UniProtKB/TrEMBL annotation:
The lineage of its organism: Eukaryota, Metazoa, Chordata, Craniata, Vertebrata. One of its GO terms (cellular component) is nucleus. This is Zinc finger protein 292a. It comes from Anabas testudineus. GO terms for molecular function: DNA binding; DNA-binding transcription factor activity, RNA polymerase II-specific; zinc ion binding.
C-alpha cells in the first residue's frame, strides 16, 4: 500500500490494475490468435463483455457510482486500443462500442455529484485518445463522449444542463445540441415536451 492510502483505496486501485491487465490480455490474445479475424473478433467481444460485467458488478453504484465511471473509462480506452485488430465484418464490434459509449454517457448524465478532478482528467484524456484511435478506423461512436470530455464537467455546458433540468433554453441552442448530441438528448427532449423540433 502507498503511504496515506486506506485499505479501500488500495483495493480499488488493485481492482483497476487487474481490469487493465485483463483487457490487455484480451488484446494480446486477439493479436496472436490463429483464428480468422472474424472468429477472433467474436471471441474478443464475448470475453470483453464478460470481463466488463464481472468488474462493473463489483461496485455498489447506488452508493458510489464513480468507480463504474472508471470501469467504463478503462473499458472504452482498452476497446479503442484493440479496434485496429477487430474485423469490420463482426457485427458485435460496433454494437458493443455503441452500448458501452451510451452506458457511459447515461452514467455521466445521472451522476448526482461533480466528478472529482483526477477522475475527470483521466476520463478526458482517455476519451480523447480513444476517439482518436477509433477515428483512424472510421468509427465516430465516441463523438458524444468526446464532446462531453472537452467540458470542465458534465454539467458545465449551460444549454445541455438546462435541457436536461427541464428548463426552457433558446430553441436554436436546443436544435444545435440535438443535432450534435444525437439520440441521447433527443430522447430526453421528447420526454420534456420539445416534440416539434
Amino acid at each position: 500500500m502507498a503511504e496515506g492510502e486506506t485499505e479501500k483505496e488500495y483495493d480499488t486501485r488493485k481492482a483497476f490494475e487487474e481490469l487493465r491487465e485483463r483487457f490487455q490480455g484480451l488484446t494480446t490474445a486477439l493479436k496472436e490468435s490463429s483464428q480468422s479475424t472474424l472468429e477472433a473478433s467474436l471471441h474478443f467481444c464475448q470475453e470483453f463483455c464478460q470481463v466488463l460485467v464481472e468488474h462493473a458488478g463489483r461496485w455498489k453504484t447506488d452508493e458510489d457510482p464513480l468507480p463504474l465511471l472508471e470501469v467504463y473509462t478503462v473499458a472504452i480506452l482498452s476497446f479503442a486500443k484493440a479496434a485496429s485488430c477487430l474485423s469490420s465484418e463482426c457485427e458485435n464490434v460496433p454494437l458493443l462500442l455503441e452500448k458501452l459509449a451510451l452506458s457511459c454517457a447515461e452514467l455521466l448524465l445521472l451522476l448526482p455529484q461533480h466528478v472529482p478532478g483526477a477522475l475527470w482528467e483521466e476520463f478526458q484524456s482517455s476519451m480523447k485518445l480513444a476517439h482518436s484511435l477509433l477515428q483512424e478506423s472510421g468509427s465516430t461512436q465516441l463523438c458524444l463522449l468526446s464532446v462531453l470530455a472537452q467540458q470542465d464537467g458534465v454539467w458545465s455546458n449551460t444549454t445541455l444542463s438546462s435541457i436536461l433540468s427541464n428548463q426552457i433554453p433558446q430553441i436554436e441552442q436546443v436544435k444545435w445540441k440535438i443535432n450534435y448530441f444525437g439520440v441521447l438528448v433527443k430522447a430526453r427532449c421528447w420526454g420534456l415536451g420539445f416534440r416539434k423540433l
